[in-house]
Amino acid sequence: WGGGIIYRSYATYQENKSYNVIKGTIPEFSTSDITLAYTVNQERSKEAFPVKEDGYEVKSVICNDEVQAEWDKENWSLKIIGNKKHVNKIKCNIDFTVTLSNYLIAKSSYDENIVKEEHEETEQTGSNAIIDYRYIGKSPNNYVCLESNGECNDDNLYRIIGVIPTQSTEDGDYENRVKLVKYTEYGVYQWSGQVNVHNTNWSQSTLNTETLNTEYWDKISAYQQYIDPAKWYLGIYDARDEDVNDGLVSTIYKKERSVNSYTIANIALINPSDYGYATGGDENITREMCLQHDIQTIDKNGSKNWSNPSEYLTCVKNDWIYQGKYFYLLNPIMRGNGTIFTGVAAGLSCDGAGVSYGHRIYPSFYLKTGVKYLNGTGEKSNPYQIMINE
Question: Helices in 236-305 by DSSP H: which ranges?
Fold first, then answer.
């Protein structure tokens, strides 16, 4: 039988719309009225008819009166393959599905605020994690609500850092997983929990073991279903190392993953490189220029960085992770006389006693690979809705 094609139809049963579709050369099937309704992950969607460019796939096609149909993925069209009852008014429901990670990767082809980032191999990850997709710029639409009923508040609103290949176990496969960070700060905490104790070992810090992976983990019990443990890289960028000759974001990224130092946990903090790669630059100082300019000084005298010369502050001001206030990062940075930097302010800096002073924290975690995109545009007023529907 010939195939009926409908492109980007917005019809639903309730709207009672139909579209004439050419059915082929057999007279009794020369025309038919076909009405399409659709669901996404078996849920009614508020968005437009799903398109191939957004990474969707079809789970099922169910039509009335035993009409048999299938979805032509290549042409993104409906094909009627059986109509024994010679039904003239055909109604079909198409159930689409797409994971959030695939949705964002597909969206990167036309959303200027999602960029494909290619990295050099690192000592710890090798060639398994050389491509990721990151949200950039001053105010991208990267909000996610961890409530499928749409009731969003500060407790369940997060922002997407990107789709980043990572493992959930020590020897697990590298999978494209969506990395989130809490939209609002969780509070002000000390790194080690002990004043004047400069313990920068994340695995042993009370911020890790008590604050985030006990207290905060329990607090988000309703959302634990979305989260898998992840491998968090703990390499330190130390500008005193002989092999460090710049403070570029790419160098910091590589140092984070350069040694076999990591922890497996549900919750952690964002990496310094996450902050660096989130910049969008502007028409004068482009993102490419930002990434080729030191994000961090590499000597104790305070040489060039994103704050020096002053026009490079545009790299900071057009970075959505920038808060204009100190907050902890996962990987301390050391330079010059051994000063430890653990937070973000203008550029990438914090006072030298940062690990014993209290600073704001923004919990971060990775979603399970099976988390599905349901609807939403990513705006704060219309955040992405997600679900798990195995």
Answer: 249-256, 272-277, 287-291
The H or E element containing residue 238 is: strand 237-238
User: Taking residues 344-348, what's their average pLDDT?
Assistant: 43
The rounded distance, in Å, linking the Cα atoms of 36 and 12 is 6
- Give me the count of residues in the chain: 390
The pTM of the full predicted model, rounded to 2 decimals, is 0.85
Q: Which two tokens stand for residue 151?
A: 């009731």
Contact 337, 346 (CB under 8 A): no
At which residue do the structure tokens 């493992």 appear? 167
Q: Which of 333, 324, 340, 257 is nearest to 295 (CA)?
A: 333
pLDDT in tens, 169-184: 999 999 999 999 999 9
Cα(214)–Cα(193) distance, rounded to whole angstroms?
14
Main-chain dihedrals φ then ψ at residue 295, nearest 5 degrees? -80, -25
Of 62, 63, 66, 105, residue with least CA distance to 84: 66
Q: CA-to-CA distance for 230 and 172, rounded, in angstroms?
A: 10
End-to-end Cα spacing for the chain: 33
Q: With CA atoms as reference, report the closest residue to 347 among 383, 312, 373.
A: 312
**Which residue, among 329, 306, 324, has the nearest Cα to 181 in the 3D structure?**
329
Do the beta carbons of residue 271 and residue 210 sit within 8 Å? Answer: no
- What are the structure tokens assigned to 136, written together? 């950039």
Q: What is the CA radius of gyration of the chain?
A: 25
The burial of 244, by beta-carbon neighbours within 10 Å (0-12 exposed, 13-18 middle, 19 or more buried), is given as middle
The per-residue DSSP string of 142-185 comes to: -EEES-TT----TTTEEEEEEEEEE-SSTTPPPEEEEEEEESS-
Give the closest residue to 229 by CA, choosing from 206, 256, 250, 208. Answer: 208
Query: Is-contact 95 60, C-beta < 8 A?
Result: yes
**Nearest Cα residue to 265 out of 221, 208, 215, 226:** 208
CA–CA separation, 284 vs 265, rounded Å? Answer: 41
Q: Residue holding tokens 């030298």?
A: 352
Mean pLDDT of the chain: 82
Residue 160 pairs in a beta bridge with: 180
As a whole number of angstroms, the distance between CA 118 and CA 114 comes to 13
